[in-house]
Amino acid sequence: ARVDDAYGDKNLMCSCPSIENYM
Predict the structure, then answer these.
(1) pLDDT tens digit string along 1-23?
(2) Distance (Å, rounded) from C-alpha 9 to C-alpha 4?
């Protein structure tokens, strides 16, 4: 799951459930 280089990386560790919404 990749959103933005800076935003996505931090979000990946911060919110796992949110990543599924981005997919």
Answers:
(1) 455 555 556 555 555 566 666 55
(2) 7
Give me the helices (H) in 1-23, please. Answer: 5-14, 16-22
Single-letter residue type at 16: C
Output the CA–CA distances (angstroms, integers) from residue 1 to 4, 14, in the order listed: 10, 13
Q: Which two tokens stand for residue 3?
A: 């959103």
Q: Count Cβ neighbours within 10 Å for each residue of 3-19 and write b for 16 or more, e otherwise.
A: beeeeeeebeeeeeeeb
pLDDT reported for residue 3: 55
